[in-house]
Amino acid sequence: MFGGIYAAIALGLGLVWGVMRILNIGHAAMAILGAYLSLTLVQAGMDPLLSLLVTIPALYLVGAALHFLVVESMQGRKEAEQHTFLILYGIMVAIENLQVFFWSADVRLISASYSARNLNVLGLILPVGRVISFVMAAAVVAVVYVFLNQTKMGRAVRAIASDRDAATLMGISVRRLSRVAFGLSTATAAVAGLAIGLVSSFFPGIQIVWISKAFLVVILGGVDNILGLFIAAVVLGVAENVTGILAPAYVVDFVAYILLIGTLMVRPHGLMRRAGA
Amino acid sequence: MWRGAQPAAALAVGFLFLLPFFGPQIYFIHLLAGLFMQVALAQSWNLLGGYTRYLSLGHVTFFGIGAYTSAICLNDYGISPFLTAPLGGVIAALLALIIGYPSLRLRGPYFSVTTLSIAFLAQVAAFNSTPMGGGYGIQLPSLPLPIWQTEVVFYFVFLALAGIVVWWARKMERSRAGLALLAIRNDEDVAEVFGVDVVRAKLKAFVVSAFFPGVVGGIFAYQISYIDPHSAFDIGLSIDMLLMTMFGGAGRWAGPIVGAAVVYLLSQTLSFIIPSELNRVVFGIVLVLVVFAMPHGIMGFADTLWTKRAARLNGRMAL
Questions:
Q1: For residue A81, what are the domain limits?
Q2: Structural domain count, chain A
Q3: Which of B280, B283, B289 is best to mutate for the A interface (most A CBs within 10 A)?
């Protein structure tokens, strides 16, 4: 079930990476920020799913602004990649501690009226919160998949990912579409954040766990391969579940890291990446 | 360039050595000891991150290993951390060798994320390890001295450590090894073509840059006499090392000294004025602004000013 969340959070990371060759280390912090925004709205009496109507546009704006202020102004610098990475890291630190300031460091969980109920599907007992979270995550992956493959704008974004210069020559406004892609990436983080909040506890600083796992999924699944990403996410979720049954709980935390470090050592550019890409 | 800097530096060091004998307030001794520790840590980070731009986000791992090594040696075997701190350094260096060999093949953000994951893994491991006290941490006996003398001892130890690391960085900067690292920073592929053994050079830099935080961590554990996974493997410490070095000027031996002094004293002052959570927010924003405005740090900024002034003076003389 966690596989869906991994997919949702890795999706935004992979999108920005694929299109702009930028690793947004603050991506998971955005997701947790989304979770906190949802939490506040839920506490004010809103349904968790309705809160997405607020958090998705809000985080889209944050992402687009970030691209406008940071990424675009760094372009042309000799060490643009490192400087952008450092700035995004600084922003992650700032977001994390703003969360502590506004929401305190307490461990939180988003609960809806129906999250305690169970669903009986063909003899399988499933908690409703988990099902909603999985469906939500799968839906956002599907939406982005359709956007990238079926719309003109999405195809243009993919064109940028495969060859920036050629895309410019074809009359695509690379700067504007990159901004859209960055905003879209942080908007998916809003969904991922709510999905996290519904099934698992969160607190400022937890983003390190999620970003490592999202990173692993992107490495395993491939940057420009949404289907591969989804499969990799589900594989990770299942691997963790199996370890959880076989070994003490804290070993589960190690699974993703060991997979991540192991994969990077064997295939530094990912398992499903095309040769030469 | 920088005429008169050397005598001034010698004077500053002499002053710092004599300072405790003038009997200043205990707070200042403690504050300066903390500053020296930060200088040593930032300079260690600089040895790899500054000279090669392999930005490690997990250097706190080595610090934590040093802290736990000396804590365990003192509590279980009764050996003073002043003797076992180098052992912590050696263990940290060994770990760097093991993780460095595969991970240094990764470039840019790949390397950074891997080191960040390792730091987190180390913290989780510490939480779940019984000999390391788990989440409860380890309590250490403090030095059998009055508090003022204790603080002075640590003042001198940290001053010496900072001195050694700075000396090492300065020596390395002017050596063949230093040149090799700068070549890697400029263009790793070109460096390799020109006969630099890049793997060896990076690995050596990583191991040395892990050794010193291990030693510092060992002494730090003794100074605060209580460590737990939160304090010994605090990810924030990794950020501080990076921030101070970038702030002062990465890839030059004087950079981390200037950066540590400014950032540490700033954060100490800020902690009087604003709540501690906002303190870290300011830190993050400062990092962002530094990269925007002064990509080469204060030292790089000062260089530019100096060159401009020199050009102006030369112009006047020519007239």
A1: 2-204
A2: 1
A3: B280
pLDDT at position A276 over 50: no
**Would residue A210 count as lying in a domain?**
no
Which among B104, B114, B263 is the top mutation candidate for probing chain A, defined by the most A β-carbons within 10 Å of its own β-carbon?
B114
Best mean pLDDT range from A69-78, A247-256, B197-206: B197-206
pLDDT at position B44: 92
- For the domain made up of B5-318, the CATH class stated in words is mainly alpha
Nearest-CB residue to A101 (from B106, B235, B277)? B277
Write down the pTM of the prediction: 0.78
Listed by start position, the domains of chain B span: 5-318
Establish if A171 belongs to a structural domain. yes
Contacts of A26 in chain B (CB under 8 A): none
pLDDT of residue B131: 74
Residue B246 · residue B259 · CB < 8 Å: yes
Using CA atoms, how far residue A253 sits from A130, A135, A244, B128, B245, in Å, is 20, 24, 9, 11, 32
A15-58: per-residue pLDDT in tens?
888 888 888 888 999 999 998 998 888 888 778 888 888 889 89
Q: Is 80 exceeded by the pLDDT of residue A173?
A: yes
In DSSP notation, B275-301 reads: -HHHHHHHHHHHHHHHHHH-TTHHHHH
Residues of A with CB under 8 A from a CB of B: 23, 25, 70, 73, 77, 79, 81-83, 85-87, 89-98, 100-101, 205, 208-209, 211-212, 215, 250, 253-254, 257, 260-261, 264-265, 268
pLDDT in tens, B92-126: 999 999 888 877 877 777 788 788 888 888 888 88
